[in-house]
Specification:
CATH architecture of the largest domain: Alpha-Beta Complex
Mean pLDDT: 93
Distance between the termini: 65 Å
Low-confidence stretches: 1-5
Radius of gyration: 26 Å
Structural class: alpha+beta
Number of helices: 15
Number of strands: 21
Largest sheet: 7 strands, mixed
Strand order of the largest sheet: 1-2-3-4-5-7-6
Strand content: 25-35%
Shape: elongated
């Protein structure tokens, strides 16, 4: 018995005529059983082979045998499969976040709203799977349907001897993250003083000295939810900011607001543990009890000639150096990668000192804007654009491309220059270049470029 008929039976037994009448005419679900897959394929044969004559015998291909392929089916109120669509990775090997949809089919008696609903469901499923490029080859007569949903036409193609259009679903995940975290900085900070050559950098050189200062606050909601982890992260983000400028950390100042002593002790336990792990002392600060949660840390370091975030130029290679060990922080899957809390002090210090040893043209610690957004910030400060090679980006096997390019990755540095960073346990690889223009584009294995950030990220302009 199907899930749809089971629900109907329960409503009948309960005498709930109102809910029974309000049931949607069809439901869309993932086809995970042999019967549903067989019904979907039978429907495809009826439409594509017998009705339209696109194929002879059957329309099956290698995508149907790929275990990564996902099939979504639409069932009517009786549980009968009346439509379906398949989607999955385009390339062999690791999933690069490039998927294609296809074999969209609807029973002749159910055409109308089922097809568009299946397309929307496929788009939502792909985005949820961390996909950043989602395409389909669409019969020319269906181009208007897809366009109304929001798909963009790329170019004309031929499939099974018939005219089709390659269409692309616009996935704005990277742009939305950059917009939500960084786009207001330019207008907000307009007119405020800064150090020439380091506007928008992770830290700032203190004029007349070799001191570099950095300051970061932790989201109050995160402090409330996970006080010990927030304490750890308050140190992590600040020492990373110093490291991006080639500075050696010498001390920290913390400012903590907490509702009571017990809560404050939990936050400070995380600060203390990170301070000891990184070998950077807490020199002082301020603590206030009886107030909403708030945490900010200032880090001080030394560097005679800091590495700027805006020192790149068109033609320079882009390198990502990241610690790929560890896993998603519990409660923050897809958003925060934790490798640092498991590292020993020598490993942490090796990563922190990597920029200082390599002296690249430009360096940025990957921030809340994620890898792609932070690359956009480096490029913006350098007065140019950037291209990121998706297949060359070092990435943990457990992370989808969409999650990895938009998460906070623990330790990750983007640099522009001649060579990799030597960063202890971290992995370093060339994965793009700075180019003329602005914004960030992703380059895929077929050579296609897709834009994920149109122009500047922060609005602060060239450093």
């Amino acid at each position: 018995m199907t899930a749809a008929t089971s629900v109907a039976d329960v409503l009948v037994v309960l005498g709930d005529a109102t809910s029974l009448a309000r049931r949607p005419p069809f439901l869309i679900e993932r086809a995970d059983d042999a019967a549903a897959l067989a019904a979907y394929r039978a429907l495809r044969a009826a439409v594509f082979v017998h009705e339209q004559g696109l194929f002879r015998g059957n329309d099956l291909d290698e995508r149907d045998e790929d275990p990564r392929t996902v099939v979504l089916v639409a069932r009517d109120r009786d549980g009968t499969v009346i439509g379906g669509v398949r989607l999955g990775p385009v390339t062999d090997g690791p999933d690069l976040g490039w998927w294609a949809g296809g074999r969209l089919v609807v029973h002749p008696a159910s055409r109308g709203g089922v097809g568009p609903a299946l397309v929307r469901a496929a788009c939502a499923y792909a985005e949820g799977a961390g996909v950043l490029r989602f395409e389909a080859t669409v019969q020319t007569r269906n181009e208007r349907l897809f366009s109304r949903i929001g798909w963009q036409s790329v170019r004309e193609v031929t499939v099974a001897g018939r005219p089709h259009v390659l269409m692309r679903w616009p996935i704005g995940r990277v742009a939305a993250l950059a917009q939500g975290t960084k786009s207001d900085l330019g207008p907000l900070l307009d007119g405020m003083t800064g150090v020439p050559g380091f506007v928008g950098d992770d830290g700032v050189p203190v004029p007349g000295s070799d001191v570099v200062a950095a300051c970061d606050a932790i989201l109050p909601s995160m402090v409330e939810r996970d006080p010990e982890w927030s304490g750890w992260c308050s140190v992590l983000v600040n020492v990373n900011d110093l490291a991006a400028m080639g500075a050696t950390p010498i001390g920290l100042l913390d400012a903590l607001g907490a509702r009571d002593r017990s809560f404050a002790s939990r936050v400070l336990a995380g600060v203390r543990r990170a301070s000891q792990a990184y070998g950077v002392p807490v020199l002082g600060g301020h603590t206030q009890l009886g107030v909403p949660a708030a945490l900010a840390v200032t880090a001080l370091g030394r560097c005679a000639v800091p590495v700027p975030g805006g020192g790149g130029r068109p033609g320079r290679r882009v390198w990502l150096t990241a610690d790929l060990d560890g896993g998603w922080r519990p409660g923050y899957a897809g958003r925060q990668w934790d490798s640092t809390s498991r590292r020993r002090t020598p490993e942490l210090r090796a990563m922190l000192s990597s920029v200082a040893r390599a002296r690249p043209d430009a360096a940025k610690d990957v921030s809340m804007a994620g890898i792609a957004g932070t690359l956009g910030m480096l490029a913006e400060a350098s007065g140019c654009g950037a291209v990121l090679d998706v297949a060359a980006v070092p990435r943990p096997a457990q992370a989808s491309v969409g999650d990895w390019l938009t998460c906070f990755p623990g330790f990750a540095m983007l640099t522009a220059g001649d060579g990799p960073l030597r960063a202890g346990p971290a992995t370093s690889a060339a994965c793009g270049e700075l180019v003329e223009g602005s914004g960030v584009r992703l380059r895929w294995p077929d050579g296609e470029l897709t834009t994920v950030i149109e122009s500047g990220v922060t609005g602060l302009g060239t450093s």
